[in-house]
User: Which sequence fits this backbone?
């Protein structure tokens, strides 16, 4: 095993989380003006990036990235309507793969999905998926 | 007649500047340097006067004299007495305000240039932190103090990273480590604060100066504790950047996008099977087990913080 590669690849996750935290905090503080075309043009590539990162098999990365879709899908960039169903579907498959709602990944996924369903109309979640979500959640009621 | 008076005035000013430059300040600096440790309380406050006098000199001689003063002060910082440390810290803070923002990078550079080691590095970080909190305006205040730390970012990052991640920082974390020095005990938290404070007052292109030491630490370390500290530093930088009034929203979005996109390739699980051509042939004819060598993908196997 090449140890230099080992440490290098593992740690760079911290920088990704750093970038996401910057975005989430700035969004919470309403620093972005969505009427500004320049801002929209810069947010657009982030939608794709965040969507892709949800396919990572690493738990911490998914937890970190799960916080981002809820914010970014409320923005009006062009790519949101096409990305929202994919992101919602991917979060659902993450929850399915965990098997229960107890793990940190599932918790983060459920939280993200709740805000996506509430805020983003473009995320067309199917009825059977909603049934699955109710089944999972009802266990803890 | 007026011209004559004007030239006489200039001549007189030049003579005063020469006298201050060649006689007054060197003798005061010599007095400051050749001090007895028991008399620090009388000697060190003189440096404040030296700074004030030097600030009225012409630019070229001003830089020279300020440099000499700062070198003398950095040497005194090597003293072991707690009272001397407190006194010199207070004096350096007041000097940094008197001289203003152009001299802040010079001040930090001179402090770093003094041959410091061991506990002196903690004292240096502590003094740097005091100076930064002293010169930068308090949160929410509109006090027009120093609001530009661009030229200091590299020095601050170096000094702070040393007490958090360096050998001196590791010594403090050791279970058997005991010290009476206040600076040594709290230097790590001061270093963290310095990172946050600097991120609040630098322009976007200097954020990388704060991230570079972390990048090199990440590449070298295998310790879980160090990684937790890296995360803590990144959190401080993130909160500093978010409070930074000099960073516009488009620049902030670039700052968000760059670390994610540049490092996103590390997030993907890529399994590369080693080809038979590259592998060395074994002597055994029968291979009992399939040899699968994974090249990367160590990232996904590791738990996060």
Assistant:
């Amino acid at each position: 095993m090449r140890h230099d590669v080992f440490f290098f690849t593992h740690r760079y996750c911290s920088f990704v989380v750093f970038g996401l935290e910057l975005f989430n905090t700035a969004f919470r503080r309403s620093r972005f003006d969505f009427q500004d075309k320049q801002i929209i043009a810069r947010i657009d590539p982030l939608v794709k990036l965040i969507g892709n990162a949800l396919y990572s098999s690493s738990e911490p990365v998914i937890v970190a990235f799960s916080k981002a879709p809820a914010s970014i899908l409320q923005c009006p960039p062009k790519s949101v309507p096409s990305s929202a169903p994919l992101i919602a579907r991917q979060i659902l498959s993450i929850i399915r793969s965990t098997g229960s709602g107890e793990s940190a990944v599932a918790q983060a996924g459920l939280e993200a999905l709740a805000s996506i369903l509430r805020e983003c109309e473009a995320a067309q979640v199917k009825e059977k998926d909603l049934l699955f979500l109710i089944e999972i959640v009802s266990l803890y009621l | 007649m007026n011209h004559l008076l004007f030239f006489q005035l200039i001549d007189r000013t030049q003579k005063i500047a020469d006298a201050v430059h060649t006689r007054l300040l060197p003798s005061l600096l010599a007095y400051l340097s050749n001090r007895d440790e028991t008399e620090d309380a009388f000697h060190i406050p003189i440096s404040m006067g030296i700074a004030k006098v030097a600030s009225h000199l012409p630019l070229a001689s001003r830089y020279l004299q300020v440099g000499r003063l700062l070198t003398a002060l950095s040497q005194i910082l090597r003293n072991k007495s707690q009272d001397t440390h407190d006194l010199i810290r207070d004096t350096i803070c007041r000097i940094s305000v008197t001289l203003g923002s152009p001299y802040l990078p010079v001040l930090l550079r001179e402090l770093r240039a003094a041959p410091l080691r061991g506990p002196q590095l903690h004292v240096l970080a502590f003094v740097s932190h005091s100076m930064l909190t002293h010169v930068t305006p308090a949160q929410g205040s509109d006090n027009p103090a120093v609001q530009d730390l661009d030229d200091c970012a590299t020095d601050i990052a170096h000094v702070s990273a040393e007490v958090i991640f360096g050998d001196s920082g590791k010594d403090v974390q050791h279970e058997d480590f005991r010290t009476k020095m206040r600076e040594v005990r709290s230097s790590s938290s001061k270093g963290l604060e310095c990172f946050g404070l600097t991120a609040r007052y630098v322009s976007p292109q200097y954020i990388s100066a704060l991230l570079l030491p972390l990048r090199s630490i990440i590449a070298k370390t295998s310790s879980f504790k160090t990684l937790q500290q890296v995360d803590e530093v990144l959190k401080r930088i993130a909160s500093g950047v978010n409070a930074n009034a000099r960073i516009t929203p488009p620049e902030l979005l670039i700052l968000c996008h760059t670390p994610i996109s540049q490092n996103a390739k590390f997030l993907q699980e890529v399994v590369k099977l080693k080809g038979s051509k590259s592998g060395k042939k074994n002597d055994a004819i029968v291979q009992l087990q399939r040899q699968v060598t994974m090249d990367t993908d160590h990232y996904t196997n590791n738990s996060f913080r």
